[in-house]
Amino acid sequence: MDSYIRIPMFPLSIFPMPGELVPLHIFEPRYRELLKDAEERDISFGIYFNHTLNTSKLGSLVKLESVIKRYPGGESDIIVKCQDIFHMDTLFRTFKEKMYPGGDVSFWQVDLNATASRKVLSEFEEFMRLLKITKLPAPCSTYHIANELNLDFEDRLKFVELDIAKKEGFLITRLKFQKHLLTQAEKAKDVFHLN
Predict the structure, then answer these.
(1) pLDDT digit string, tens, across residues 133-162
(2) CB count, 10 Å around CB of 109?
């Protein structure tokens, strides 16, 4: 049986993946309280993916990276970084004595230090070269690569639930497709001449 931990929760229609940096605009009083706790107590919190596609009840454990801007009315623009994925058992209206929600979750314990296979890295290097990017993250996990592909919600959910071999096959297919698109876009530049 899974062991669940109760954490602060921020239900949103986004699904960050491990290693991803995400901008958020905080304006509701309850989430301003959550931001205050995240700053003062250095706590992580969950972003529950509040979407009909999320039949597996997955979410992302995130930690505050920085506050970009504070507004006079108490709103803030922040950056959070995804650390892990979780399965949510129960969502509660409030977390302990706080205004913001909480949830009982079990963490997946994603290892961002597990480097992708040489085959996937080779495809990724070619893709990044086409984008004129030469510096790759180190270590470079399957999640780092997936984050570069701007996957939609459905593909994100599909990707995270695959085993490692299928994750790599998924990435190779997507990288080849993206490389094809980039190559075609480059060729199109030679066909059209500006006057």
Answers:
(1) 988 888 899 999 999 998 999 999 999 999
(2) 9
3-state secondary structure of 97: coil
Q: What is the CA radius of gyration of the chain?
A: 19
126 CB-side CA count, 13 A:
16
- DSSP category for residue 12: B
Give the CA dihedral 32, 36, 41, 43, nearest 10 degrees: 30
Instruction: Kindly tell me the number of DSSP H helices and DSSP E strands found in the chain.
Output: 5, 6
The CATH number of the domain covering residues in 5-107 = 2.30.130.40
> What end-to-end distance do the CA atoms of the chain give, in Å?
68
Task: Indicate if the pLDDT at residue 74 is higher than 90.
Answer: yes
Indicate if the pLDDT at residue 1 is higher than 70. no
Contacts of 106 (CB under 8 A, 6+ apart): 2, 3, 4, 5, 86, 87, 89
Bridge pairing between strands 76-92 and 102-107: antiparallel
The angle that helices 164-191 and 118-130 make with each other, rounded to 10 degrees, is 20
E strands present in 9-101: 21-26, 44-48, 58-70, 76-92
